[in-house]
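Translate structure to sequence.
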């Protein structure tokens, strides 16, 4: 990870805007580590950076994948490493920016060699409810570092345990690499207020029409926060006020999980953005990166 700097944190903290200013200051390029912004389309629903932010410096892995394609941490790692290599070939620093914990960890810690999906086992696991799956995974792998509320990840972790005969948490082919970066966050009331406002803004900008025109998509893409709620709104199953409130709640819960993940999984320098304005935050992060010597020419 030489020549790579990370800016990570929960949704709605303002990472994208700050990262673009930091990249401009350091002459760097940005590699997005967002599981949903990598897809083309649904710009409002996935809160992609606006045109002004994208114009400040080159951005990569935003809107580059068809919404029909499946994505996972391994595919992201391969794409990101190739992109980082190309950035370095231009003599530039790569700044990885995002809040998708597994994608970040794929770069900082590597990936495990996991067995292929067994259709018969998957079918049997699909018959179990989430509570039974959680209980089964805890018995197989007490140290499993997965989101236990994410059914797909719990199922996959169980598969790895059963097919390999070993705990999924102990299967890793690469050790953690030396990485440098910042973990940005905000005070809870500040963050939740930003989340609520962003969701309201999405609806003012007609996210409903965006979802209505989306068409078919992969299983991975269909996990976007807000997609299910807006589809239920379109089907007349809830009011627009209920829809907004449910998306706000789901996003707040996601942000809480992200905060927990990054506090446990990384040793990046923490920075509370509620205590510093945009200019000061950019100055602090840029100076930190220069002090670490991660930018080309600063060795």
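Result:
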């Amino acid at each position: 990870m030489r020549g790579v700097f990370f800016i990570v944190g929960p949704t709605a903290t303002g990472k994208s805007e700050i990262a673009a200013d930091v990249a401009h200051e350091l002459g760097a390029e940005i590699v997005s580590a967002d599981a949903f912004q990598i897809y083309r389309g649904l710009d409002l629903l996935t809160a992609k950076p606006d045109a002004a932010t994208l114009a400040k410096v080159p951005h990569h892995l935003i809107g580059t994948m068809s919404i029909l394609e499946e994505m996972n941490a391994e595919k992201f790692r391969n794409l990101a490493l190739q992109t980082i290599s190309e950035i370095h070939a231009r003599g530039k620093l790569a700044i990885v920016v995002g809040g998708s914990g597994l994608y970040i960890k794929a770069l900082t810690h590597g990936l495990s060699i996991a067995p292929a999906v067994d259709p018969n086992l998957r079918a049997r696991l699909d018959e179990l409810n989430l509570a039974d799956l959680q209980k089964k995974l805890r018995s197989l792998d007490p140290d499993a570092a997965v989101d236990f509320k994410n059914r797909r990840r719990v199922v996959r972790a169980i598969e790895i345990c059963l097919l390999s005969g070993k705990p999924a948490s102990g299967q890793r082919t690469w050790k953690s690499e030396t990485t440098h970066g910042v973990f940005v966050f905000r005070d809870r009331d500040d963050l939740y207020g930003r989340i609520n406002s962003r969701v309201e803004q999405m609806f003012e900008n007609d996210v409903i029409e965006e979802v209505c025109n989306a068409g078919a998509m992969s299983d991975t893409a269909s996990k976007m926060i807000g997609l299910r709620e807006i589809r239920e709104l379109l089907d007349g199953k809830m009011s627009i006020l209920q829809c907004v409130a449910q998306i706000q709640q789901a996003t707040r819960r996601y942000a809480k999980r992200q905060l927990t993940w990054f506090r446990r999984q990384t040793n990046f320098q923490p920075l509370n953005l509620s205590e510093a304005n945009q200019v000061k935050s950019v100055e602090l992060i840029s100076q930190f990166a220069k002090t670490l010597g991660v930018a080309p020419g600063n060795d």
